[in-house]
Amino acid sequence: MTTVEPILSKEEIADLLAAIKSGKVSTELVENGQSRSRRQLHSTEVDLFRTYERTRGSGEMRVPNLDIILDNFARRFTTSLTNTLQRSFAVDREEITTTNFQQSLIDLKSQGAVGIYSISPLKHGCLFHFDTLMAFTLLEIMLGSSQTSESLALDRNLTTIEMAILRTVMTDICNELMNAMRPVVELQAQLAKVENNFRLVSIVEPDVEVLVTHFTIRLSGELCGRMRLIIPYLTLEPLREKFKALVTITQAATNTWTEIFAHEALEMESQVTARSGLINMTIRKILTLQPGDIVDLHYNPDQPLTVLVEEQPLFLAIPGERNGKKAFHITGRYSNRLGGIHGSA
Questions:
Q1: Is the pTM of the predicted complex or chain greater than 0.90?
Q2: 65, 173, 210, 339: which has the highest count of C-beta atoms within 10 A?
Q3: What average pLDDT score do residues 46-57 get?
Q4: Cα separation, 31 vs 208, whole angstroms
Q5: Could you give the CA distance from residue 58 to residue 198 in angstroms, rounded to a whole number?
Q6: Do 162 and 301 lie in a common domain?
Q7: CA 225, CA 176: separation in Å to the nearest integer?
Q8: Range with the lowest mean pLDDT among 80-89, 198-207, 218-227, 254-263?
Q9: Does residue 95 sit in helix, strand or coil?
Q10: Dist. CA 96–CA 74, nearest whole Å
Q11: Residue 56 has what pLDDT?
């Protein structure tokens, strides 16, 4: 009976080639020209297995530049928590590890709350877990606790009402996750459910590999809980090439902030004034004005108006009417060479 050897995956082949290149796995034959002994092969297989396991243990190596996206998410979630709860929060990303889905749930020790998210067009979705300390800290703040109150990690499960309150913060994660992932893919993230019975949580098969990202949450510099993101590797694997295209965190952050500033600038309101004359008058003169007094603006109707945007002269214009309303027609840009400002009416 012939024994069929297992076929290596692409990742295992890549690890084997890397091990050979680094010298960890030798390709030389023994002196008598025969193949290696079974003992030598067994040793090589063990070394390769350990190398592969070390690679699997690092989520950053499994998905290149994933840390860039998650650091961006941490910064955005920091701002979101601070603005929503009016407290000084800080969210710091820690390690990214790999395990199977069942073990990732066991590690949560049936404590805290889990938000189940759909992230279309990606498959399988993801989970965000708030540990007990973080969950009760947020609940205390959202229910109006004072600034000096100490956070308590109560030794009990969250109630249905408490999970409904936490849903507000968990929903905010959707926007921050979509914005952080935008350099890689346009997501439509939605919070499907908040659960405290982890036996009812299932997004993939128990033995499917997942990436687990750990976050530390601080309130005014003090630890107030931990959060985990659990996402199947199969969800991110189709995006490996796009993740590789992210060169540095500086470029990613710069591009993101440039887009935000450009978009917000277009939506800003500004004050625009068409000025036909300008005079200088002392406070004493203003106080002596009486009904019927005439103030000479020295306005020349043959000269264009000066159009000011936020008190800064930018354009020249001709006054007129349109659809029964006062209007002006811009004729050119304002220049200091025109001999000063032309007036206000």
A1: no
A2: 210
A3: 43
A4: 44
A5: 25
A6: no
A7: 19
A8: 254-263
A9: strand
A10: 13
A11: 47
Tell whether 1 is covered by a domain: no
Where residue 313 sits, what CATH number does that domain have? 2.30.330.10
Cα torsion for 285, 289, 292, 297, to the nearest 10°?
A: 40
| Residue among 155, 152, 137, 157 nearest 199 (CA) | 157
Omega prior to 121 cis, within 30 of 0: yes
Note whether residue 37 is domain-resident: no
pLDDT tens-place string over residues 147-202: 544 556 677 888 889 999 999 999 999 999 999 999 889 999 999 999 988 888 88
Residues in the chain: 345
Alpha-carbon distance 345 to 273, whole Å?
10
The residue among 152 and 109 whose pLDDT is bigger is 109
Q: Report if residue 287 sits inside a domain.
A: yes
Query: Can you give the residue range of the structural domain that contains 84?
Result: 64-265
The CATH number of the domain holding residue 204 is 3.40.1550.10
Question: Rounded distance, CA 180 to CA 186, Å?
Answer: 10
Distance CA 138, CA 89 (A): 11
pLDDT higher than 80, residue 128:
yes
167 falls within a domain: yes
